[in-house]
Structures
1.
Amino acid sequence: MAFFRGKRRFQLVASMLSAVLAGAGNAANAGDVSNDVNFTSDVIYQIMTDRFHDGDQANNPSGSLYSFGCSDLKKYCGGDWAGIAQKITDGYLTGMGVTALWISQPVENVFAVAPTAAGDTSYHGFWARDFKRTNPIFGSMADFENLIAVAHAAGIKVVIDFAPNHTSPSRQGDPLYMEDGVLNDDGTFVASLNSDTSGVFYHNGGTDFSTYEDGIYRGLFDLADFNHQNGTIDGYLKDAINLWLDKGIDGIRVDAVKHMPFGWSKAWMNSTLEHRPVFAFGEWFLGDGEVDPLNHKYANESGMGLLDFRFGNAIRSVLKFGTSDWNGFHGMITDTATAYHEVIDQVTFIDNHDMSRFHSVGADPRRADMALAVTLTSRGTPVVYYGTEQYMTGDNDPTNRGYMTSFDTTTRGYNVVKKLAALRQANSALGYGDTEQRWVNNDIYIFEREYAGNVVLVAINKAFTGSTNITGLFTSMPAGTYADELGSLLDGNAITVNANGSVDAFDLAAGEVAVWHKVGGASAPTIGHVGPMMTRAGQAITIDGEGFGASAGSATVGGVAGTVLSWSDTQVKLQVPSVTPGFHSVNVNGSTAYTGLEVLTNSQVSVRFVVNNASTVVGQNVYLTGSVHELSNWTATNSGSIGPFFNQVVHQYPSWYQDVSVPAGQTIEFKFVKIDGLGNVTWEAGSNHIFTAPASGTAEVNVNWQY
Ligand code: NOJ
Ligand code: NOJ
Ligand code: CA
């Protein structure tokens, strides 16, 4: 009954919305919500659901959970899914041209107020208590379905935040603290930290962030920390995300991926992609200037992209803090182009809810506009944090999570996003192109994005005073005169390009940003994007690009033709053929290879490998290798084998362990190896260990080192 009412209501809203959009002529800017594995032409708008717009006062909590007028930023302030839907139908979000929303974790959160001085609440959505129910303060399931329907009708994708690392704040030995980190399964009690007979949670205390292992197997802050090897939890978290996938979400932002076992995350992602492939990006926090090879490996081999903290920190250093310059920025661009196999699947931003807002009190808002312009024209899939277009400020949590101040569609920031979101849809160089530096000094950066004859040229001068005459600039745009795509919003001018690619000298004023572009036309088949990048034989991948030709040709994985499921000049859906499991190239009609597609041996399960009595000398670590791709096919190197293994928290030296994603139901041969920093390898003696992975769920294999 209730369900029927909800459905009727959203059908009505959705049809009213199409009428509104048709009238306003906005539909032309709409994104393609049918392609959930490729977000590269999208602009994602990040909304803290509680802080955006209150569309339904009836669901607001009362008492110490709620702050009327949002004067207390640690409380719920009333924002909800109905409010977001209203901001789609009234044209605020569609008018800005954003084609995807990232909203707070939608699941039921604890209702308890923390006994802290601030009286913290779960308004941010990161304190789950039941991943299979909605947070009623954001709305009912009918409200959620309505938001999806309204967004899709407007050409907008919906990405949910999802935090499978933990439930909520809790304390060992103090079951009365808040809700004791309780986990429910659609209303049925599963466990809480102090009532955990089946080992759903770890009980290892909180992490001091000293090592990767410590951050995984101890709690993040005081959040009750899931033991992902527990079969109940493994199944629960797979079922829970499937429930939201079945509601029609288009993508997932995965919280705190650095704090979950890589192997479990990969197996979970495999399960998710097999249920319905969508783009997922994880949050692996990196501090300013931090570069972490484990972060790159995660982005390359987990089946997810990551939030691009290297990009975010670099743009903030140049344009917010003034601690770096464009030479430094371009160094980040070239480094990340090789460190990430798919740099365009990394998600860029200039600020978010875990750092100071880009704009700050007393700063020139033009700095934020410039940062948005560079980010929306750079490689990677860009996010705009809600309110950045309104120049909201706030240096710390929770002031950086203020209530949306206004919905003014005339701010320059709003209009910079509007122009460039439209350009991301119109010119594929922004989604797929590489980045070439055309002219640089500390203040000036002129960069070119190019893909299959499509070109976007961007010039920025961050100097506060004085203009620079730009001479000696070259571009790959053909001869002609090009207007500034920003319409001089940031004082851009037209340029004239000559037949040899030289650009006539022009002045680039202090604070100017100009964007010029040319839509080309592929002269040969050229792949722009493949998704998902982790798959297996028999599953479908979506290959986007240009010049594939109108009639079906041949598309291959690792040189083997797959079954074509659909074909157009810009998109091929291909069933992955049987190939040797491993990393492979994709080709369409003999195009240049798109490299790095991981073809798994089979569906994945997470298995904990433990080896006891493996004593090592200083500098040596224990690794695993074995007979399948997932165990590195008998590679014995410190970059190729699985590891280094852990030996501190769950098991202690001379025992070593790691949770590894392996093919389900497969009989695997394996051995452990000791490898030192120079790459010297000591193999286990004896014959190979043999293990058959379970068809589903998790398992543990525990052996002694064979001397
Ligand atoms: C990272 C989130 O972005 C942050 O806001 C949250 O508090 C932690 N993960 C824990 O969920
Ligand atoms: C002119 C050169 O053509 C360009 O490549 C260079 O970046 C600038 N000078 C700044 O040094
Ligand atoms: Ca509300």
2.
Amino acid sequence: MPWESAAAEDRLAAGVVFNLPLDTVFYYVVPDELREVVGPGQRVRAPFGKGGQPTTGFCVEVGSPATSRPLKALDAVLDREPLLSPRMLKLTHWIAERYLCGWGQVLHAVVPAGVKKKSGTRLVTAFMPARGVCGRIESLDLPHKQRAVLEVLCREQRPLAIDELSDAADCGTGPVNALRDKGLVTAVRQRTDARGSDLEPVETIRDLTLNEDQRLALEAIMRALREGRHETVLLHGVTGSGKTEVYIQAIREVVDYGRQAVVLVPEISLTPQTIRRFRSRFPSVAVLHSHLSDAERHWHWQQIARGEIQVVVGARSAVFAPTPHLGLIVIDEEHETTFKQETTPRYHTREVARRRAELESVPLVLGSATPTLESWLRVERGHDRLIGLPRRVEGLPLPPVVIVDVRNDPWIARGLAIGRALETALRRALDDEGQAILFLNLRGYSPALWCRACGNSVKCPHCDVTLTWHRDRKVALCHFCEHETPSLSRCPGCGSPGIRYMGIGTQKLEEEVRRRFPGVGVVRMDSDTMRRPGSHDVALESFRTGKVQILLGTQMIAKGLDFPNVTLVGVIDADTLLHQPDLRASERTFQLISQVAGRTGRSRRGGRVFVQSANPAEPAILRAAEHDYRGFVAVELEHRRRLGVPPFTHLARVIVRGPRERLVSEQADAMVEILRREAHGPEPVGFDEQIRLLGPAPAPVTRLKGQYRYHFQIAAAEFEPIHDLWQRALPHFQAMRDVEFTVDVDPVNMR
Ligand code: ADP
Ligand code: ZN
Ligand code: ZN
């Protein structure tokens, strides 16, 4: 950093980063009138770019500049308080380095919009009488207006905002402030639109008595907690082994020490069931989900920053919760792909959490029944500690899983979703007054449209993706760009009639179930039926109360649900995941079958699982059926090691895109050429052995939303050489009109 240590120079400069893909800090002189107010973590305005446009950025450091070059001056400081602590600045800087993007971009993304806008419109100060005041109003010697205010407050018995108060007592703010100065009223911050669900009282429940396995797990976490050091603990517990109870009791310890805990869950797990579980154990829980308004996010952010929240439960971005004394981070279902952010900064929540936990010397607990190979390999290499919960609570067995070979099934051959074996099992489960969950990974009615005449599948006009027929809305829908084509009577390619609708999606499955099981209550959960906030709760409630016997749906129903009466789980088509062009296809298949299977056998009633597949010998399916995680990882890790792919390598995947294919392809070629030259350049730094450049090639989805996409990958066993090569090459990339690129480090999505 270009700072001078001596105070020889009494110029003060501020280092500023802007919301741009640059790894540069820009320096500005701090004018005298801003000296006292500027600091790291605040937003500032400064001239930037060719025309010196006033531009908002984040101040990341302040000191005396080592250069005597003339610097431009800061225009303004926009925040009175820092929006980020020094630790958060450090963390965001790490993210920029690790995910090859601009520090300013990270800061911009991490601070919620509501906080930046100070959107306090729905966050107000309200007033209440101080304790005991209402009983002695008569004895107080008060001016008329002040007395009136106090009388209103005592009558209303709830905090009143200033505007309500001045209406009711017919006064300005003066009397209210005077009362506050005298200590007769107290101010509280209040949301005017406080969400009912947040404030609804939840019955308090005492902690459960842990079983032996859980006790050992808790002790291992406690050891790290008490020693005040960072350690990552991988809690590998089969479904229903009581992982959540272990998190809760570890958090109890943290909270008892006056510290806060952050619990990260996949967005779809933010169900009332999960939330209730935490809120029934801790008095102050903040739930951060994606439906929050800017104002609500702002309100939570402030409450958390003031230390008023003990436990933050949230999706991805909750990893940035500004807890003043963090004690523990938990990531539940750490294998979930939604922990990867798919827009810049493309961070992985697990890695950010690990870094944050290191910086704050606190433990990180990763929980899963099916940990990622990344996490497992770290355990094998001795970086992280493994704790196992190999049994379900109270001695319940894991459910037996039957793999049904559908290749000779008469029903499947006729185009039905439910084969003979599954049908029989379903009838038996319903006869015994059990409930069933049917899982199918494809939404819509028919996931493939196909022309009989020319033999082509019918694709989206903007994407290289087959359209899905949605019968209820009578449209062929692109699941990538949402483009709708109204009823297709003719093939868009050759113009002939006779489009065939192939395959089975959840809509068609629902129709089949209703037809074959008349009178049985069915509810479907997928992103089509669950559009409105709250629809989740309604669907799950109807299943919980037994009004509905069959719950069917996509990933949405695969995890987290804990319904003791579910005695049957059916996986309609285990092969859909297997055939994805993705290096993690096997891993995903294994995870999903294990997770779905985990939804049954959760009580003495027991439960069974039927997995329909045309590849019954597939190891991922076989091992999942045997609940054999270790057997699966052993083989899969060896396979990945031989291929030299993650988790044995890091990848930076670069996607180049634009409306004209030729230019996109040329730009991809040019970028790879530059990278190759820099890697082997005049001063090769051993890149040959360390780094591989793969591609360029058309991306698996070559056209998306009207843009052509090409990609290439930089692969290496360690991340540093990738970082160094990228930073060396970056200044040499020539911008090309209408062509953009993004870089995705350790990508999860390979489309
Ligand atoms: P996981 O998170 O591993 O799937 P959960 O924490 O959801 O498991 O636990 C499964 C069920 O077992 C829950 O209903 C929970 O209340 C119950 N449970 C957990 N620990 C205990 C325990 N020690 N004694 C009795 N019941 C328990
Ligand atoms: Zn055709
Ligand atoms: Zn499309």
